[in-house]
Design goal:
With 175 residues, the chain is α/β, with parallel strands linked by helices. Helices cover 31% and strands 19% of the residues. Belongs to the isochorismatase family.
């Protein structure tokens, strides 16, 4: 089995604008960077996915804008692949699946934002594409409060839905 770490949408928009701050954002960055370090130590590829808007220049995710950039606090290296997506699904028209197949990667570790949008959609899409030995470590994904639920409850709800179905949710270190 060959695994890769996929870091989704950890972009400046979630750290620069108060109304977009991710729940427990500083701890999240630390936890993801810890995973990145562990992945590199094991020789696992670290892949970044970046939400991208190409038509509306006023959109926070407009390609090339300051908010669109991958968060400066992420331990990203120039050699890390970056796939830009325009939908919530990190596989949709991005080249991610081709990259994984070409590199014979059959196990995915997910991290990033936002829990109920791009993380959820990507985890489910990966499962449907045949990636069924996937992992998610507690504290490595986050979201914003919604009008209905606080972020912490959104996270707990989604982990309950995913656990044992679409992804294994673990505590501790990348093994």
């Amino acid at each position: 089995m060959k695994a890769a770490l996929i870091v989704i949408d950890m972009q400046e928009v979630f750290f620069r604008l108060l109304e977009n701050y991710l729940y427990d954002k500083d701890r999240l960055v630390g936890q993801i960077n810890r995973l990145i370090g562990q992945a590199r130590a094991k020789g696992m590829p670290v892949i970044f996915v970046q939400h991208t808007e190409r038509e509306d220049e006023r959109d926070e995710f407009y390609e090339g804008g300051d908010d669109w950039q991958i968060h400066h606090g992420m331990d990203r290296e120039e050699s890390d692949p970056v796939f830009q997506k325009t939908k919530w699904d990190s596989f949709y028209q991005t080249g991610l699946e081709a990259y994984l197949r070409e590199n014979e990667i059959d196990e995915l570790v997910f991290a990033g934002a936002q829990t109920e949008f791009c993380i959820d959609t990507t985890i489910r899409a990966a499962y449907s594409l045949g990636y069924q030995r996937n992992r998610l470590f507690a504290g490595t994904h986050s979201t914003l409060d919604s009008r209905v639920l606080p972020a912490e409850q959104i996270i707990r709800h989604h982990e309950n839905v995913w656990k044992g179905r679409f992804v294994n949710i673990l505590d501790g270190d990348l093994e």
